């Protein structure tokens, strides 16, 4: 493609520049490390930000020792999540009402870089980094989203890994829990010389799982994650400068399934699994390499990062029933959604392993084998200028990016025999063999002008996206497509400082989500105009923020993946849609005479939505839509209350998380046949989960912690997609010990 040669040349030239001995005549900058992996900055930057930003720091992450990103984000307003496996292995995250399906409409970042295996060509995130190793989680919504891209409707989720420490230090973290839970996490950082520092870190996380497979079987998982960081200080009297190399390897083996339960089976035992899912298994291997150069002068900074990630994954799972006699059989979702129909009962008995299958009830298992890579180079900088009483913060960035997905999907047929899946002997056959590749150039520029009590930010992002799709099946050379898109995405926001502690702010920006290369060029990308207005108070011990938002979609686009029950990744248009709501967050801390403190945090999110026109779509989450219908999988009310009690060397804290019921799909079918939309009119359960954690520090080096997730063992239907009712994580207990050295 036309950008490919340019990309390779730029990477080569920039890599050479990374090692250049840049001369500068600036005053000496701060001595602290400038490994700029945060996209938010310090607390003061957050307080004066003309937009909605949230930070969960290392202290908060350590309080609950969460391994699931969904539980971490439950404390952040404006985040909507659809739970799936209970452990957060493949999270479904959205901001401000965008579809949470596979987190494909938010920018998922690690240390300021896109971490998705192919964020342009295949944004559905079947890979997610291990949150146990993170030391911070940042959420940016609203106009500031134009800095990150390509998706600018919702915002960015940036996870921070541990920087190379300034002094020699290490830690071991060992934890055990119910359902065979085990965690082993350790890191060690050393200053080899005054200028050279090294950090090594590794995590092993595993569990036997909380479900019970009919006729027995493994329902657990194991994940490994290993990091190496090397930092070299290039600073001199004129400037602060450093070079950082990061290498990561991670893998996962998880025996999870897309197949859920009938509502009746769920109410009887929410943690059972049908025998038909006994071979369902995800395996992936992930590697990532980053070379970063940071330089800071008196009034400017520049960060340049070259990156490469690779992911190989195989996702084997039950797809459907097929018949050797050409009979059209109902989908798995239809079977579990209406188990009273005689034929459905028969097929359900096969799924449970209660009866053997015949040539009329063959179970088809698909292996979605995919290889993905993402590579590029990006530079981000800022320049601070002063003219009289006016200050300018000019921020800019450019990214040359390339990613690709190769699909090598196959299916194989099985009989059910005495509760076990047995191959029919037909062997596997290919179903999808194609490649999608994207080259993208992104540029943003914005100026934040401060004058007195006013702060105004104006900026624009430009995306040039070249997509290439090719069917690789022999004889399908004509099944190909090349397309190109150019888009300008402006933003404007303003902030007024009412007092030293309080501000009001408002903003507007253009939202954009690109379509993947396989989508027909006639399908326009997603567009929206997004507005917000808010108030923020930041006192010594208290904070309060309230933000109202309105997303006006002129063309809502959704792509349907296997996790939503579709056989393709094709895109569908929902036309004009409004999404609006209110985000509130408050925190304070009470001090008692005994020296104890009581931290209190409250988060509330109200979100509503409506389609602006009636239509029919073959997209299974919509189907028959009437004007005024809400979007599926969007909770109207969400709230989290955190309450703690802290002493000098101990603390106890509880989280109470409420999630409202969510619509599963569109309305009843116009034909009158409810099976045209098996989930029409159904809602997930509303549910409340209480988590409790406590820790005690014996001395400076040893800390003991205990925790209970879902203390009161709430069992709720959190989703019926793609193939039936699935539960949230049940009551689980853990105990761990941290040793610092």
In words, what does this structure look like?
The protein has 741 residues and is mainly beta. It is 8% helix and 52% strand. The chain has seven helices and 36 strands. It is globular, with a radius of gyration of 26 Å. It starts with a helix and ends with a strand.
Task: Note the main attributes of this structure.
single chain; 741 residues; mainly beta; 22-stranded antiparallel beta barrel; five-stranded mixed beta sheet; 7 helices; 36 strands; 52% strand; disordered N terminus
Strand tally: 36
Low-confidence stretches: 1-35, 668-675
Structural class: mainly beta
Shape: globular
Q: Can I get a quick summary?
A:
This protein has 741 residues and is mainly β. Strand 8 and strand 9 form a beta hairpin.
Q: Helices and strands in order, then pairings?
A:
Elements: H1 2-18, H2 43-47, E1 52-56, H3 58-64, H4 69-73, E2 79-82, E3 92-95, E4 107-110, E5 113-114, E6 136-141, E7 155-160, E8 169-177, E9 181-191, E10 196-207, E11 212-213, E12 221-233, E13 240-254, H5 263-268, E14 272-273, E15 281-296, E16 300-322, H6 332-337, H7 342-352, E17 362-387, E18 390-417, E19 420-423, E20 429-451, E21 454-471, E22 480-497, E23 502-513, E24 526-538, E25 543-559, E26 571-591, E27 597-611, E28 615-616, E29 624-625, E30 637-646, E31 650-659, E32 687-697, E33 702-709, E34 717-719, E35 726-727, E36 732-740
Parallel strand pairs: 4-7, 11-14
Antiparallel strand pairs: 1-6, 2-3, 4-5, 6-7, 8-9, 8-36, 9-10, 10-12, 12-13, 13-15, 15-16, 16-17, 17-18, 18-19, 18-20, 20-21, 21-22, 22-23, 23-24, 24-25, 25-26, 26-27, 27-30, 28-29, 30-31, 31-32, 32-33, 33-36, 34-35
């Amino acid at each position: 493609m036309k950008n490919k040669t340019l990309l390779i040349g730029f990477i080569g030239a920039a890599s050479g520049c990374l090692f250049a001995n840049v001369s500068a005549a600036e005053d000496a900058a701060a001595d602290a490390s400038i490994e700029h992996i945060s996209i938010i900055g310090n607390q003061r930057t957050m307080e004066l930000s003309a937009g909605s930003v949230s930070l969960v720091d290392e202290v908060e992450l350590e309080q609950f020792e969460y391994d699931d990103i969904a539980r971490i984000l439950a404390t952040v307003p404006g985040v909507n999540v659809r739970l799936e496996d209970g452990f957060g292995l493949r999270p479904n995250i959205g901001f401000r009402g965008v579809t949470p399906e596979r987190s494909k409409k938010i920018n998922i970042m690690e240390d300021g870089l896109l971490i998705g295996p192919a964020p342009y060509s295949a944004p559905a995130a079947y890979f997610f980094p291990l949150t146990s190793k993170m030391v911070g989680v940042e959420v940016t919504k609203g106009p500031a989203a134009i800095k990150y891209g390509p998706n600018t409707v919702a915002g960015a989720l940036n996870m921070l890994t541990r920087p190379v420490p300034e002094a020699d230090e290490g830690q071991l973290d060992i934890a055990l829990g119910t359902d065979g839970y085990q965690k082993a996490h350790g890191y060690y950082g050393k200053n080899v010389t005054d200028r050279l520092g090294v950090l090594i870190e590794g995590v092993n996380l595993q569990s036997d799982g909380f479900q019970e497979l009919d006729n027995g079987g493994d329902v657990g998982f194991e994940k490994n994650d290993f990091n190496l960081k090397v930092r070299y200080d290039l600073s001199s009297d004129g400037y602060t400068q450093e070079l950082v190399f990061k290498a990561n390897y991670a893998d996962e083996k998880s025996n999870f399934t897309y197949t859920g339960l009938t509502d009746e089976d769920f109410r009887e035992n929410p943690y059972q699994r049908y025998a038909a899912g006994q071979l369902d298994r995800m395996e992936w291997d992930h590697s990532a390499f980053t070379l970063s150069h940071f330089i800071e002068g008196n009034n400017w900074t520049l960060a340049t990062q070259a990156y490469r990630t690779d992911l190989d994954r195989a996702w084997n799972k039950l797809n459907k029933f097929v018949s050797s006699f050409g009979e059209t059989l109902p989908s798995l979702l239809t079977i579990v959604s209406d188990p009273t129909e005689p034929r459905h009962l028969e097929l359900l008995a096969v799924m449970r392993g209660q009866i053997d299958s015949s040539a009329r009830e063959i179970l088809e298992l698909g292996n979605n084998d995919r290889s993905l890579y993402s590579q590029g180079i990006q530079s981000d900088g800022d320049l601070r200028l002063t003219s009289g009483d006016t200050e300018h913060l000019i921020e800019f960035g450019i990214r040359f990016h390339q990613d690709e997905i190769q699909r090598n999907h196959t299916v194989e047929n099985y009989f059910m025999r005495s509760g076990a899946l047995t191959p029919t002997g037909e062997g596997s056959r290919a179903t999808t063999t194609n490649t999608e590749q994207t080259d993208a150039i992104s540029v943003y520029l914005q100026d934040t002008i401060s004058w007195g009590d006013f702060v105004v930010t104006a900026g624009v992002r430009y995306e040039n996206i070249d997509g290439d799709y090719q069917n690789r099946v022999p004889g399908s050379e004509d099944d190909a497509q090349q397309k190109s898109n150019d888009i300008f995405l402006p933003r404007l926001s303003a902030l007024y400082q009412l007092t030293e502690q309080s501000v009001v702010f408002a903003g507007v920006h253009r939202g954009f989500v690109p379509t993947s290369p396989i989508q027909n060029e006639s399908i326009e990308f997603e567009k929206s105009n997004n507005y917000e207005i808010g108030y923020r108070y930041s006192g010594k011990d208290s904070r309060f923020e309230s933000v109202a938002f309105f997303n006006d979609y002129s063309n809502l686009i959704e792509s349907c993946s296997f996790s939503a029950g579709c056989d393709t990744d094709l895109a569908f248009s929902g036309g004009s849609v409004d999404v609006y709501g209110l985000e509130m967050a408050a925190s304070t801390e009470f001090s008692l005479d005994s020296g104890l403190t009581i931290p209190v945090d409250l988060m509330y999110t109200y979100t509503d939505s409506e389609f602006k026109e009636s239509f029919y779509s073959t997209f299974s989450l919509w189907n028959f839509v009437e004007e005024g219908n809400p979007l599926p999988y969007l909770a109207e009310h969400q709230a989290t209350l955190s309450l703690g009690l802290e002493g000098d060397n101990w603390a106890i804290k509880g989280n109470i998380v409420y999630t409202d019921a969510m619509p599963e799909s569109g309305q009843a079918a116009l034909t009158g046949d409810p099976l045209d939309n098996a989930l029409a009119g159904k809602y997930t359960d509303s549910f409340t989960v209480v988590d409790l954690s406590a820790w005690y520090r014996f001395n400076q080096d040893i800390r003991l912690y205990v925790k209970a997730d879902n203390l009161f063992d709430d069992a709720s239907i959190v989703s019926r997609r793609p193939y039936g009712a699935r539960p949230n994580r049940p009551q689980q207990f853990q105990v761990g010990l941290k040793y610092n050295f």
